[in-house]
Design a protein that fits this description.
By secondary structure, the protein is an all-alpha fold. The chain has one domain (about 5-125). It has helices at about 5-35, 40-65, 70-95, 100-125.
């Protein structure tokens, strides 16, 4: 892989991760408000948190690959895997969460598979046409 392609791939993954993290932060603020005002139970909160992870990975893969893009499986999978790894890394730094090795492996596999799926879907979307100058 040439240096330019490698740099472009890293930039695409960084763009996708940025979008995924931004969506996660916004979603966490909304979830916090729902916990306070709607008095969500633990089960509902866990389900909404998982839905937020899936949406963040999907958005990140879409931004990284772009409609009609190339290497959707690889770029999307990297976005999903790194997103989950960063999340668990930050959780481990806090020292408050109890994370088992089994849970970590399942979540990382989920991130990789979902990112790959969303990346492949994004690559197969029709590319946007650019306006031509007349």
């Amino acid at each position: 892989m040439s240096q330019v392609l490698r740099r472009d791939a890293v930039r695409a993954i960084a763009r996708g991760l940025g979008a995924a993290i931004a969506l996660t932060l916004a979603g966490m603020l909304i979830l916090a408000a729902l916990v306070v005002w709607a008095r969500l139970g633990d089960r509902a909160l866990i389900m909404l948190n998982q839905a937020l992870k899936i949406a963040a990975i999907g958005l990140g893969a879409l931004i990284a690959v772009k409609p009609g893009g190339r290497r959707g499986l690889a770029l999307g999978g990297c976005v999903g895997l790194v997103y989950i790894a960063l999340g668990y890394g930050l959780t481990a730094l806090s020292g408050l969460a109890l994370v088992t090795a089994r849970m970590l492996v399942i979540e990382m596999a989920m991130g990789l598979l979902l990112g790959s799926l969303f990346g492949a879907l994004a690559a197969n979307l029709p590319a946007r046409r650019r306006a031509t100058a007349r």
